[in-house]
């Protein structure tokens, strides 16, 4: 069980007795955040492209040739 030291601070709440493990956790979380951010950027770009295509189709709707 971890030793609890009050008052709580970043140093005594985050770092383990071996700093390596704390750094590994921090690095994994940073990598996870980078991957999540890239997913968001990709989604926004795809959505932007879809919205632009929809806007383009509404500006120039296809003409119908009924009754000719």
Describe this protein's structure.
With 68 residues, the chain is mainly alpha-helical. Pfam families: FCH. It comes from Leucocoprinus birnbaumii.
Rg from alpha-carbon coordinates: 26 Å
Name the overall outline: rod-shaped
Mean of pLDDT: 84
Secondary structure: number of strands: 0
Instruction: Report the helical percentage.
Output: 55-70%
Q: Give the end-to-end Cα distance, rounded to a whole number of Å.
A: 84 Å
Structural class: mainly alpha
Biggest sheet layout: none
> SSE order, as H and E?
HH
Query: Uncertain spans, ≥5 residues at pLDDT below 50?
Result: none
Beta-strand level of the residues, as a percent range?
Answer: under 5%
Oligomerization status of the protein chains: single chain
Question: Please, how many helices?
Answer: 2
Organism: Leucocoprinus birnbaumii
Protein name: FCH domain-containing protein
Domain FCH: 22-58
Task: Give me the secondary-structure topology.
Blueprint: H1 10-14, H2 19-59
What are its keywords?
about 70 residues, rod-shaped, mainly alpha, 2 helices
In short:
The protein has 68 residues and is mainly α. The chain is built from two helices and no strands.
